[in-house]
């Protein structure tokens, strides 16, 4: 059984190029520690699952990695850029899909993505090409001109995914990307993540262990604000049931 490992697994990524790094990330609210000394790295081209029970510190860690939350201690790096010191340059490397992320519901997917692209300095044929690409990859063409307020939760999730990918970032941090999707759509997201992993680095938070087994060769597991496992997915068990049992042991569930 693997425990906390400081170095990424060389068999599941290019260990020479670290794209995501949490270095001693801690977040305190008074005496309460939401996270404490969270450290791990994700190499280029790896899909890494980020797991933990509710309240373990996953969302807090992802917010510190993305620059949405300042750490009390420690540093976050994206593509070698320290997030707190250079948020703009770090954000250029990042596509972030938060769970239930905010959308401009009065806009259409087309309008929102065009607006988002313009904010990132994309224009003309470059923006049109990227919009067409994400619309196809996220299966948005049938709702392209409908108000987001009228879309189902699954379609809204896909709009958020398209927005995260629009500027062709090197790093994707995805929080529950298949939430609200039907089984066919889930398979589509899995295929898309596999395709994106050929050129991008992906940190994926999910509660569904079946997705972890299907998409992620490596797992970082957090509990009570600390990393309790960092290693190959296979080391958590050779079946979903075995993974669930090991998850309970590592998170001290009753």
The strand order across the widest sheet is: 6-7-8-3-9-10
Radius of gyration: 18 Å
Beta-strand share of residues: 25-35%
Strand element count: 10
| DSSP helix fraction | 25-40%
CATH architecture of the largest domain: 3-Layer(aba) Sandwich
Q: What is the typical, i.e. mean, pLDDT?
A: 89
Write out the CATH superfamily name of the largest domain: P-loop containing nucleotide triphosphate hydrolases
H/E element order: EEEHEEHEHHHEHEHEEH
Give a quick rundown of the structure.
With about 250 residues, this protein is an alpha/beta fold. The chain has eight helices and ten strands.
Reconstruct the topology from this structure.
Layout: E1 14-29, E2 32-44, E3 47-51, H1 58-66, E4 73-78, E5 81-82, H2 87-92, E6 94-97, H3 109-119, H4 124-137, H5 153-165, E7 171-175, H6 183-196, E8 201-205, H7 209-215, E9 218-223, E10 226-232, H8 240-250
Parallel strand pairs: 3-8, 3-9, 6-7, 7-8
Antiparallel strand pairs: 1-2, 1-4, 4-5, 9-10
Model description:
The structure is a single chain. The chain has 254 residues and is an alpha/beta fold. It is built from 8 helices and 10 strands. It has helices spanning 58-66, 87-92, 109-119, 124-137, 153-165, 183-196, 209-215, 240-250, and strands spanning 14-29, 32-44, 47-51, 73-78, 81-82, 94-97, 171-175, 201-205, 218-223, 226-232. The strands form 2 sheets. Strands 6-7-8-3-9-10 form a 6-stranded mixed beta sheet, with helices on both faces. It has a 4-stranded antiparallel beta sheet with strand order 2-1-4-5. Helix 6 (183-196) links the parallel strand 7 and strand 8 (201-205). It is globular, with a radius of gyration of 18 Å. The chain starts with 13 loop residues before the first strand and ends with a helix.
């Amino acid at each position: 059984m693997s425990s906390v490992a400081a170095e990424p697994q060389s068999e599941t990524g290019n260990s020479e190029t670290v794209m995501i790094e949490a270095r001693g990330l801690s977040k305190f609210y008074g005496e309460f520690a939401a996270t404490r000394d969270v450290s791990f790295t994700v190499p280029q081209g790896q899909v890494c699952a980020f797991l933990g029970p509710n309240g373990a510190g996953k969302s807090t860690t992802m917010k510190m990695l993305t620059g949405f939350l300042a750490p009390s201690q420690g540093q976050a790096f994206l593509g070698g850029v320290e997030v707190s010191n250079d948020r703009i340059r770090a954000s250029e490397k990042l596509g972030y899909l938060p769970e239930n992320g905010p959308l401009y519901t009065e806009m259409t997917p087309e309008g929102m993505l065009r607006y988002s692209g313009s904010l990132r300095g994309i224009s003309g044929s470059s923006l049109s090409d990227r919009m067409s690409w994400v619309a196809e990859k996220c299966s948005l063409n049938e709702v392209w001109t409908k108000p987001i307020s009228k879309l189902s939760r699954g379609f809204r999730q896909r709009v958020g995914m398209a927005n995260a990918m629009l500027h062709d970032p090197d790093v994707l941090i995805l929080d529950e990307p298949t939430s609200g999707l039907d089984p066919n759509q889930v398979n589509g997201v899995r295929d898309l993540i596999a395709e994106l992993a050929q050129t991008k680095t992906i940190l994926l938070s999910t509660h569904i262990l079946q997705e972890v087994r299907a998409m992620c060769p490596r797992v970082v597991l957090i509990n009570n604000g600390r990393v309790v496992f960092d290693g190959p997915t296979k080391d958590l068990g050779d079946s979903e049931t075995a993974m669930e049992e090991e998850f309970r042991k590592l998170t001290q569930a009753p």
